[in-house]
Task: structure prediction
Amino acid sequence: MHENEGREDEYFICKEVYTMTVYYSMKQMLRSPLKSILFFLLVGASAFLLALGGSLSKMNAEMVQEFEEIFTTIGTVDQKNESIVTIAEWDAGKGDYVYSRLGRPGKWISSAVLEFEGAGYILKARQRPYFGARIEEKVRGGGDRYLLVAELTAEVSDVLEHSVPMRVDKVLAGNLNAGDTVYICDHYGDSDGNYEPRRVEEGKTYIMRLHDISFVHGPWVEHIAPEEYVREYEAINSVASYQYTMDGDRVPDAVAEAEDWNSFDEVTGDFYETERGMRWLELAKSQDYEFYTVPVEPVDGTNLLLPFYQNEAQITEGRDITGEEYEEGKNVCLISVELARILRKGAGDSVTLPLYYAAYAPAERHDNAFLSSILNAKGKVYPVFHEEDYEIAGIYKNMSVMGSGEHDLAVHEVIVPWNSIPENAWEDNIVRFEPMSEGNTSFQIPNGTIDDFMKAWEKQGVDGLDIKFYDKGYSQLQAGIENRKLMAWIFLASGCVLAVMILCFFSNLFITGQQERIAVERLLGRTKKQCALSILTGLFVLALAGTAAGCAAGWMATGRAVEATENTAKFDTTFSNTIIDSGDEDETKVSAEGGKTGAEMAVAAGCGMMLTAVLISFGFMRQALKKEPLQILGELEE
Amino acid sequence: MERIEVKEVSYSYQNKYQRIEAVKEVSCTFESGNMYAITGESGSGKSTFLSLLAGLDRADAGKILINGEDLSEMDRDACRRKQISVVYQAFHLFPLLTALENVMYPLELQGISRREAKEQAALCLEEVGLEEKILNQYPKMMSGGEQQRVAIARAMAAKGKILLADEPTGNLDSENEAHIVELLKRMAHEMDYLVIVVTHNPGIALQADVCMKMKDGRMNISSAKRCIQ
Result:
């Protein structure tokens, strides 16, 4: 018995018998050429569809992946102006008021309204403050015309309705020279219409915060030729404090409430012993600090800053801050080329950032020393609320045109992860609070979800906010991608259905339809396995040939199809949702490189096809072999 | 010398409605050099008995010994390949193979090279009296007699010396029937085959050396003449 089995195995693996089995299997298959050719062609057609659909699917997936890396969708939020007010300002040059119209937002809307169901943020919407960090090196040029505090003695007695000469006695902050004569005028006094320029008395000394405003004019400068363009200064602001709560309310300060915009004080013997005198000293100190202050902007992603998003600012040394670093709040930062030069530091070095005030306003405005003062409600310079060493991850160059908008970067802006600073650590150091604007309120959502976001937002019923989206044209691309996805799925689905139908039909024809052959082979002493081999070999060889041909054709057709429909679009990087056909604008070229698609999906489609063929044909074969040969022949004779 | 011993063999099967006892305690012996005829009415169990001898079914009880070896313990596929051949009324040739290829098939199945198989198959076809022009014809191009001869040639080619034939002339005219019966007799008497023919045809039974009659699954053994009576 065992010996018999051994011989049987030997028989089964016998090369000649195997060769003979294949030979006769193929011979019989080819002797029904019409059926065989039809089978080959139909298998090829379904393999073609599968390979085409699979390759297109893969290509689409790769393209979407590529697009996801290229494109990001960010939104910015602006609080709309609720009304327009007319401002009257005294123009000493004209000796009359000038009127201007200015948009005014209504009640400030909290950024908390942007937290709503269905927003689907990748990076949540925040109204970001920027922080002032006082560093060791001086970052503002000596010629800065805004940060000046000095004691001046009037050389004449007059009303400051034209340029009045005053001698600089003592410079407390800024770039003036003691002994020089400067000309002061209340050129544009903030006014409600009742403004009267103030008067100075000859020989009296005053302390003023000055602002370079225009060129000299009036009776005291007749000896100066107009072409000499001698500057004139205006006394602006004073010792009023500016401190806000996290809700944007101003912290009460009696001194501030009593102040005029352009008040100044007369300096007498013990002036600096008085409360106002001490405040003037603090103000001078704060003005001096500003020369050493860099704006630090905490964000959740570099792309949330429009200059980076629009490639106007680019990392030139080192690297960007990674998503993980943002997430974990690592002490890493990006600094500008200019600041790196001043600090004499490069990527990998560290910089200490002592943060001492927070301003809810676009950082770009820091360049103009827009803060009226950085004194808190106690009349003191804000103390440092957070100080850490930050590693310089990268150095960027900002190539945007200066003054291109509130979304621009400040000159020496330092970018740090939002999470690197403890939440609300700055709540007692808020020096400015303005409504949300695109310069300081932005968020990121998944590509292609703008409509969903807006639907969810509209349900909130919040008026007064203007939300703008920037997606570099992804919305236009999305339609094309969806079409290609649909096309790929149609090919795949029709290929699958066709494959199963064809394989079932032909398995029925070549297996169930050959029951007599199966029975006779069994009667001639073939085992069930050999019988299956004999019947299926021809079927598989034809299926394999058809599949290979179909897949190869499908793969080549994919390349052709992509070439024909190659979707090369040029996307303006400056404006969202804009595709431009030509022009010299800075462009991002996105090309669907479908022609370079690999053969993996065609091979996978072929393998899938053959696996299906094996499963289906084995199913039919198993069923056919269940019957004993005599039963089959008996049924056939009946 | 081929010998089949059947000892107390019984076989039953379940059809759609009831259990059929097709073969009941049959005992008999078959030896080469003889042609045996098994007759009986339809449903008497003769074809079932033949399939038991061919190893296509397994007996419920009793033993079938092929040259002393118990068939139930043998590899029955190998047995059909090497020892026992079966010929049917409907010929059952491979429709997509020529006459020559049909005969070569069992030879190649035994590992014989194609060239050698071709030569031997041609000899077998010559032996059954088929002309050379038939060799490359497909079954559907041949007459019933020619097809049955090809089937017998295929059985001969298998090298086994036991030939079981189930109504081998059922689809043939009288002339072809005579040729086939003559061929079977010649195989038994001149080539020392053990030939067992299941038939309705009394003419064939008369020409057999031994005639067996089955009725309700039981077997009566007699001479050919008694069998016919």
In short: Residues 298 and 418 of chain A are 4 Å apart (CA to CA). Confidence is low (pLDDT under 50) at residues 1-6, 567-595 of chain A. Chain A touches chain B at residues 1, 4-5, 7-8, 11, 14, 16-17, 20, 23-24, 27-28, 31-32, 516-517, 519-520, 522-527, 628-630, 633, 636-637 (CB under 8 Å).
